[in-house]
From TrEMBL:
Belongs to the glycosyltransferase 2 family. It catalyses: (2R)-3-phosphoglycerate + UDP-alpha-D-glucose = (2R)-2-O-(alpha-D-glucopyranosyl)-3-phospho-glycerate + UDP + H(+); an NDP-alpha-D-glucose + (2R)-3-phosphoglycerate = (2R)-2-O-(alpha-D-glucopyranosyl)-3-phospho-glycerate + a ribonucleoside 5'-diphosphate + H(+). The keyword Cytoplasm does not apply. The keyword Transferase applies. Residues 5-126 form the Glycosyltransferase 2-like domain. It comes from Biomaibacter acetigenes. This is Glucosyl-3-phosphoglycerate synthase. It comes from the Bacteria. Keywords: Glycosyltransferase, Magnesium, Transferase. GO terms for molecular function: glycosyltransferase activity.
């Protein structure tokens, strides 16, 4: 089965190289697509220097649109979603995410940080369903079309849809992996505001699923 890695990226010039270095060396991946979500930094240049395929969004459109744009730009049968700010990514993590989907054991895997850093391990232990590291059969995204998803609502929507539609999900531990937290990346205030916005996107999505208003 063909696999495309999709990396949504908004101002990730400092970290995306470490993710692409691993992905571009992997034979298991047919395509590596970076969706540059209106970044104002050198994200796109770094990605092109690694020979990744870059899809440029003209303005910042939010994580959901970035990932869904990546999906529209490939015919691959399996989609690997990875964030551009991962620290410590190894080929093994990618294989661990893909294997249950390859084997048919699951239609979606969700990667959970373990022994990465205290704060990010804890966040993912409390809310594993938010993780952005996933592998999915393409038809999971086809099913998502009838649900409206926005910004940081993508992962919770995928998780709630999987419950609703009996899609098989498997969580996998990603050892020694972490990411750069919003406050570290954007500064305390802007990071915190972005976190509040993220929680709002998630709560809004949960309410829509509960009320069955899509
Ligand atoms: O408007 C946005 C916000 C985020 N992202 C990307 O989505 C991923 C996860 O976002 P972020 O790091 O803000 O979330 P966190 O991991 O801190 O929850 C990262 O690769 C971001 O660059 C994006 O493409 N567009
Ligand atoms: O793990 C989490 O609690 C959040 C927030 O991460 P940080 O607080 O910035 O480390 O990050 C995840 O959730 C987002 C919404 O589902 C995803 O878009 C991110 O990819 C994921 O890292």
């Amino acid at each position: 089965m063909s696999v495309a890695a999709i990396i949504p990226a908004y101002n990730e010039g400092k970290t995306i190289g470490n993710v692409l270095k691993v992905l571009m060396a992997m034979k298991d991946l047919d395509e590596v697509i970076v969706v540059n979500d209106g970044s104002g930094d050198n994200t796109a240049t770094v990605a092109r220097n690694y020979n990744a395929r870059v899809v440029d969004l003209p303005k910042n459109s939010g994580k959901s649109i970035a990932v869904l744009t990546g999906v529209k730009n490939t015919q691959a049968e399996i989609i690997l979603m990875l964030d551009a700010d991962l620290v410590g990514l190894k080929e093994l993590h990618v294989r661990e995410l893909l294997q249950p989907v390859y084997s048919g054991e699951a239609a979606m895997t969700i990667g959970i940080f373990k022994n990465g850093r205290g704060a990010t391990d804890l966040a993912q232990r409390i809310a594993p369903f938010l993780s952005g590291q996933r592998a999915l059969k393409r038809d999971v995204f086809d099913k998502l079309e009838k649900y409206s998803v926005k910004d940081y609502g993508l992962e919770i929507a995928l998780t709630l849809m999987a419950e609703r539609e009996n899609i098989r999900v498997r969580e996998v531990e990603l050892r020694n992996l972490t990411h750069v937290m919003k406050e570290e990346k954007r500064g305390l205030l802007a990071g915190f505001l972005s976190r509040i916005k993220m929680y709002w996107d998630i709560i809004y999505c949960v309410i829509k699923f509960r009320l069955e208003v899509f």
